[in-house]
Amino acid sequence: MPTVSKVLNGHPDVATETRRRVKAAIEELGYVRRGTRGLLAQRSIEVMADQLATPYAMEVLRGVTDAAEAADADIVVSRFHRAAPDAGWLAPGDWARRLSGAGRTGAIILTADLSPEHVAGLSQAHLPVVVIDPLDLTNPDVPSVGSTNFTGGMSATEHLLGLGHRHIAALGGRPQSVAAAARVHGFRAALASAGVPVDEELVEFAGFDYDSGFAVADRWFRSGLRPTALFAASDTQALGVLEAARQHGLDVPGDLSVVGYDDTYIAAWSTPPLTVVRQPLWEMGRVALDSVLALAAGREPVSRHIELATELVVRGSTRPPRGFGTGTGGGPA
């Protein structure tokens, strides 16, 4: 039994052949230890998000689960802002203790703002955590995974400029989101590089959701603001823009070119199919899972903030503005 215990707890002073035979016997007998994180204990990662019913979250979760299967780890999905048993929200310290008490190997948090109290609780619980698309990058103690949002915003705008558009709107995501801000900064940089002024009336931050995209675009169109092109901060936001354009009798892409962001499954299914900046969501989920497991094993990640490359995918929702190149308007300013 001492030898079996050493194998279960990962002690190095066991001969390779003996270790192999002990593992084979354990697997044949189906022995499972409870409440431990030893060598043969099943690793369990909790994925926490407040909005899972979105194409964005589902694509990230697909990457996490695919990587977990390859690593033979379990995934548990829950809300980041978890209700307390009595009333209100679970306090940061209790939040960390709940994860640790549940025997989690680590946690992945999707698009959330970790408070100093959350970070302190995680440190006390010795629980590795990785954040995907964090709202705030100012905390160097928490590793994170994202994408090249500035480059993505810039490439979307350069595509529209290359088609001949000069009256371009930008619809950012949540104003507190560092990713949304970076995309709009990329939009501004592309316009500045082309010598095209920004129409500040046509730059606005709102939610990443369909309703926010519809509401902002509808208000712009009702007030007489009619850009020839619009860059949206998410696919779902872009779908809201398409519906607002339809209700105002605007043809996409004839009257309005639209670029979305993320390239979730709904982008290719929309009418017309959306030109988008592809954010590697599946890969972000996979990298986050691998990073959590590496931290749990005592290995530091290559970088505290990992950025994966974005890519422009051109489909049917963008084209040159009407009259471009014919001498009837719409050409370069």
Average pLDDT works out at 83
Binned strand content = 15-25%
CATH superfamily of the largest domain: Response regulator
Spans of at least 5 consecutive residues with low confidence: 30-40, 327-333
What is the H/E string? HHEHEHEHEEHEHEHEHEHEHEE
Structural class category: alpha/beta
Shape: elongated
The tally of domains stands at 3
Alpha-carbon distance between the two ends:
82 Å
Number of strands: 12
Radius of gyration: 24 Å
What is the CATH-assigned architecture of the largest domain? 3-Layer(aba) Sandwich
Name the helicity range. 40-55%
User: Largest beta sheet, briefly?
Assistant: 6 strands, parallel
Classified by CATH, the class of the largest domain is Alpha Beta
Query: Could you name the CATH topology of the largest domain?
Result: Rossmann fold
Count up the helices: 11
Keywords: DNA-binding, Transcription, Transcription regulation
InterPro entries: HTH_LacI, LacI/GalR-like_sensor, Lambda_DNA-bd_dom_sf, Peripla_BP_I
Pfam family, one: Peripla_BP_3
Protein name: LacI family transcriptional regulator
